[in-house]
Design a protein that fits this description.
Number of strands: 18
CATH superfamily of the largest domain: Ribonuclease Z/Hydroxyacylglutathione hydrolase-like
Order of helices and strands: EEEHEHEHEEEEEHHEEHEEHEHHEHEE
Largest sheet: 7 strands, mixed
Structural class: alpha/beta
Distance between the termini: 13 Å
CATH architecture of the largest domain: 4-Layer Sandwich
Low-confidence stretches: none
Number of domains: 2
Strand content: 25-35%
Radius of gyration: 22 Å
Strand order of the largest sheet: 6-5-4-3-2-1-18
Length: about 300
């Protein structure tokens, strides 16, 4: 079962020749979710082999243009592609006003419905849920109301030890009960603990997206144990004062957040255009958190299964 993140954009407010504004695609079990939608998002989707029609939902962290301006042309193009299924968009207020204006003036007859779900940026709340996934909001500290997103895979169904089926002569009904997590009572009256019969095929995986924000111990704590964390690192450590004033983070802020969360890996992005090369920023973050990587456009980060 797949769980990966593809970087579509990694620049801050101003795009560069080789870096677009913020956008990512999260793929969980071949279900695709767009996270932020900076300018050029639809071209980036096509460039990196993601069919826009496969998008199940969109999550917008805040209403700054470098995280939003690419959404509206994408909505129009999805109509041209012939999308028929509803597209939910999770975003802070007053996104509904922006969406209503777009639909009124540019997409009056879309063949599908766009539904807005408000993200309350001061709350850690469950936003989205299906059979395999939960998405939670993470309050962030920026100049406007902003939320990050925590993608948590649900616990996979239990597998049953095949040799135990033979050993105890389990019936189909007993096998089904064991997979539901129940102990099994044999005809002899012996009770077999579920843990003796079953095993978890892999540990649920998780991904946290934290952009844009000052360092927040609270936000990091809400991501405790996350497998992969994306944290903005707009500036190098020498620009700590500027980062704090502008509601952003440095490389070392991002590394501190990953340490606080107990993350396994860290991706840094949302780079200021002043930085032409990213290796020095990564090296700086690695002084605190060795498993740090740059958000390079087109790169896919895979969350491997852990037993």
């Amino acid at each position: 079962m797949s769980f990966n993140v593809t970087i579509l954009g990694s620049s801050s407010a101003k795009p560069t020749i080789d870096r677009h504004p913020s956008a990512q695609v999260v793929n969980v079990h071949e279900q695709y979710y767009l996270v932020d939608a900076g300018e050029g998002t639809q071209q980036q989707l096509i460039r990196y082999g993601v069919n826009p029609l496969k998008l199940r939902a969109v999550f917008i962290s805040h209403l700054h243009g470098d995280h939003l301006f690419g959404l509206f042309p994408l909505l129009s193009t999805l109509g041209l592609y012939g999308r028929r299924t509803e597209l939910p968009v999770y975003a802070p207020a007053p996104f509904g006003e922006l969406l209503a204006c777009h639909l009124r003036y540019f997409d009056t007859d879309l063949p599908y419905e766009v539904t807005w779900h408000e993200v309350r940026t001061t709350e850690h709340a469950l936003l989205f849920e299906n059979r395999t996934l939960e998405v939670w909001s993470i309050p962030l500290r920026h100049r406007v109301p902003t939320a990050g997103f925590l993608f948590r895979e649900k616990r996979p169904p239990l597998n049953i030890e095949k040799h135990q089926i033979v050993r105890y002569g389990l019936s189909i009904a007993q096998i089904a009960a064991a997979k539901r997590g129940e102990d099994i009572l044999l005809d002899s009256g012996e009770r077999i603990p579920n843990a003796e019969l079953t095993y978890l095929p892999y540990e649920p995986r998780s991904y946290a997206y934290l952009s844009d924000t000052n360092f927040s111990a609270k936000a990091a704590g809400l991501c405790r144990g996350v497998d992969l964390m994306y944290h903005e690192a707009t500036y190098a450590a020498a620009e700590q004062k500027l980062a704090r004033e502008r509601g952003h983070s440095t490389t070392l802020d991002a590394a501190r957040a990953a340490l606080k969360a107990g993350a396994r890996r860290l991706i840094i992005g949302h780079f200021s255009t002043r930085y032409k090369q990213l290796d020095e920023l990564v090296a700086e973050a690695r002084t605190l958190f060795p498993e740090t990587y740059a958000a390079r456009e087109g790169e896919t980060f895979t969350l491997e299964k852990r037993q």
